[in-house]
Sequence to fold (327 residues):
Amino acid sequence: MCFILSELKCYGSTTSSSRNQLNPMSLSSFCMIPRTPHASKITSQSAAAAAALATASSPASANRIASTMANLKMQGKVALIPYLTAGDPNLDTTAEAMRLLDTCGCDIIELGVPYSDPIADGPVIRASATRSLAQGTTLEKVLSMLKEVVPDLKAPVVLFTYYNPILNCGMEAFSKAVKAAGASGLLVPDLPLEETDNLHEFTVANDLELIRLTTPTTQQNHVKDIAQASEGFVYLVSLTGVTGPRDFVHPQVENLLAELKQVTTKSVAVGFGISQPEHVSQLAKWGADGVIIGSAMVKRLGEAATPEEGCVSLEKFARELKAALPK
Fold:
């Protein structure tokens, strides 16, 4: 759920400033943080590694996310969607945690690739990204891990990344590599709606569902366009501000959900600040089709004394959240 992407060697030089701007239509409450020079390194070896991943067959099938959401809705259930930072505290623990969350009944798993320059995250996820990068996490390593884990999961996986590194890597190569690793969807928070078609050409060719976000400050005339463009589900950001646990879910979310339901029949999942069983229960009553929990998950796994203790804490929390949702 957190908005971070890794310091990737396969990602090339920075693009034009217009491409680096965070589009207000997508996440209008966030300000862009200037990118650091070390985030734009590239080597032929790492580019070749990404290309090699793309040659393998993928276990993912088309529309797994949308189908999962639709099936749950028909049963009167709400999707539980945890977020993890890949590589925190290490990739082996990330893999184990994904398997645990799947066993606990989580319906979709969102996996973020850590980036040295996050734009929308609070202290929990920023610290998580720092720890992961210190372990040497790269996109290639994340996708390699994902390729090993996905066959063990019932839940489809959404990969989180930003738009600029995709452009630098190349939309086609990136999409093929993500598909080959087994991911079912892609979440790009700063992807401008008017540029969706450019990336969508390659995601649709690789059976990747491209999820779009709307926020409390998204202009009303854009909400319908975003909902129509979104695949898998529509991601409703619950608040203006950065990620991180909150004491309560703002009452405005009920109205935002109602407004979205008036312009789309697609499933709507709510994220940002969701951190307690009471939160997910409230959102279910308000009509959310899915709940996304990021910082609260990351904190339990990444800040534990040992990876083993982190996994125990994560499993306990996931089961508590699951129990708070409609059966």
Observations:
- Residues 1-9, 11-60 have pLDDT under 50 and may be disordered.
- The radius of gyration is 18 Å.
- The first strand starts at residue 79 and ends at 85.
- DSSP finds 15 helices and eight strands in the chain.
